[in-house]
Amino acid sequence: MFYHPKIRRLSPDQFDLFGGGGNTGPAKPSLQAAGQSDAAWNSYFFAVVLPSDIARSVDALGRQLRRSMKLRGNLVGPDRYHVSLCGIGAFGEAPSGIVDRLKQIGAPIHEPRFDIFFDQAEAFGSSYGKRSLVLTASDTLPALLALQRRLHDAMLAASVPIDERFNPHITLLYDRRPVPRIDIPRLSFTVPEFVLIRSVHGARRHDHLARWSLGS
């Protein structure tokens, strides 16, 4: 079993890692109580990474929304836009063997390629005192849900701790100002692969640890 007492659901630079929406969100963990500094925080998660052209379009849209909604938060940026699937958060170093175990979980999953879209912008709540401005879809995304469920079930079978919530979205920025849900021009793309990411809090960096192609 890979349970570790310092595992947490989210990291501060990944408020909605598992898709908590509305006013939901986990309680803010105490880094001081764990004897760690803010810079020591890593999280590990499976995700769909946006193609470069879509990431640039999302960034341009984010700039427009930030300006029109009078927000001040920094955009996540084209190199970090993604759709989180499932994963863990941890203080300091990863629990022993967990990265290798996550790679073992991802390797045998061979879902077909699929298309997804996003056509709304809205704010998700957070217990960190900020809201996340996100892109969401007005309809279900069954192929994405199927991929997430395969990973979710594999993590459970491997006794890796996991959050049960999943709400597909792309996070643009974090800000305290509330914003309404609005329609946006539809952004759609084909998902050719999924990726295992390490998010390093304080460094605004995503390290891609492994990637797996989806079938044709």
UniProtKB/TrEMBL annotation:
Reply yes or no: does the keyword Plastid apply: no
Provide this UniProt record's keywords sorted from A to Z. Hydrolase, Ligase
Q: What GO MF terms are annotated?
A: ligase activity
Q: Which InterPro entries match?
A: Cyclic_Pdiesterase (IPR009097), RNA_CPDase (IPR004175)
Pfam families of this UniProt entry? 2_5_RNA_ligase2
Q: Which PANTHER family match?
A: RNA 2',3'-CYCLIC PHOSPHODIESTERASE
What is the protein name given in its UniProt record? 2'-5' RNA ligase family protein
